[in-house]
Amino acid sequence: MKSAVETLNPTRVRLTVEVPFEELKDSLDAAYKKINDQVTVKGFRKGKIPARVIDQRFGRGAVLEEAVNDALPKFYTEAVNEGELNVLGQPEVDIKELKDGELLSFTAEVDIRPVIEIPDYTGIEVTVDAVDVSDEDVDKSVDELRERFASTNPVERAAAEGDVVTIDLEAKVDGEVLEDGVASDVQYTIGSGELLEGIDEAVTGLEAGGEATFTSQLKGGTAEGKDAEVSVKVSQVASRELPDLDDDFAQMASEFDTLEELKADSRKRLGNMKQYDQATQAQERVLDELLKLAEVPIPEKLLEDEIKTRKHNLEHHQLGQMGLDLPKYLEIQGKTEEEFDEETKEQAVKGIKTQFILDELVNKEKLNVNQEELTEHLMRRAQSSGMSPDQFAQAVVEGGQVPMLVGEVARGKALAVVVEAAKVTDTNGEVVDLQDDEDETAETVEASSDDTEAASGAATEAAADDDKPEAKNEG
């Protein structure tokens, strides 16, 4: 077999392959056997039909077609290995010549990983938010905890902001009561904004037994988006009473004996959260700077597939769970379809660039992933997916996604190398030490190439597809 590689552009090549006919012998034998097993010819036992009879009855062309389809993956793979190509996805194969007894010639166009020059990243400098926990932050945190321990007591007075009212609702559109527009004994906190627009004004000032009517645009249900006439009746008014901020509250709401200990713990937790956010911010900004430094050609087919995958995941998974379709989502976001498409393309390009650059860094720095690192990453992914580690691990193995997870961990380690070399300062001018934030780094990579695992899929699962080239016979 002879093969030659022609570079069409930095991300695509054309292979030209010539195969002597004798190298098709095994595939021809397999083709005759397959046809033998599928057909019957009078006078011959099943499976014992001579090749000349198959040629006469069904045509030599049918046998050759079967043999070529069987042989193409093998010859294509040999040509890829001979050319030392890092291919992505399935090739487009054209059979140029098929001379019975002489020669098989075909071409295969396929995307390849571009050659990337890793830039000098040691000079990267970024600024991040400082970790400042104010007294106001602590007070807000304690107040939120206090809200959770609030009690309600019925009162004999008009409802006011902050009260909890028990109400019955009935919505009409064009004078007709909606089937899904009736609700009873609904508890609502005035001022929370959790129900219909206009309800706060309607119920404020009403006592138990009071009624009011208001007009509001429905946010869901069969008449979503339509204006409805809503009748509301208050059956109870209750005041919310917050516990006193004292040591008794601290003992009731936490494991601490004093309010000061509770506040100190809140300050520490808020500081840890802000440090985590700071680390994530630093890694994202370092990654953005790295992407600016590197020239990364993007394979067109890979980009097209990534954009389709992102759109599919949004429309059929994320929006479906929220009961939305794409037009409604765009309306809520205040975006046109053109703006959405452009934004999706930018995200896809960033995801593919991120993967290519970090994969190249993994190779350059010779980074490996050990079992402990993979297990820790699997545990985090399982937690974020809402599955148990055992369930998630089983799904990963059955789906053949272990290489994908290994790639995520390796890319996280590669980004950690870049972050460690970068100069990170906060808005107070203090140098930020991120050496102990490897977990956050892995999650940053996962988020920035997130749905990039579609790109990952095209890139890392290409090997599984490469033995199934699609042939087009120009003759």
From TrEMBL:
Region (Disordered): 429-475
Claim: Isomerase is one of the keywords in the record: yes
InterPro entries per the UniProt record, alphabetical: PPIase_dom_sf, PPIase_FKBP_dom, Trig_fac, Trigger_fac_C, Trigger_fac_C_sf, Trigger_fac_ribosome-bd_bac, Trigger_fac_ribosome-bd_sf, Trigger_fact/SurA_dom_sf
Cellular compartment(s): Cytoplasm
EC number: 5.2.1.8
Keywords of the record: Cell cycle, Cell division, Chaperone, Cytoplasm, Isomerase, Rotamase
Compositional bias per record (Basic and acidic residues), positions renumbered to this chain: 465-475
Amino acid composition bias (Acidic residues), ranges on this chain: 433-453
Domain notes: Consists of 3 domains; the N-terminus binds the ribosome, the middle domain has PPIase activity, while the C-terminus has intrinsic chaperone activity on its own.
The protein's role, per its UniProt record: Involved in protein export. Acts as a chaperone by maintaining the newly synthesized protein in an open conformation. Functions as a peptidyl-prolyl cis-trans isomerase.
Name of the featured protein: Trigger factor
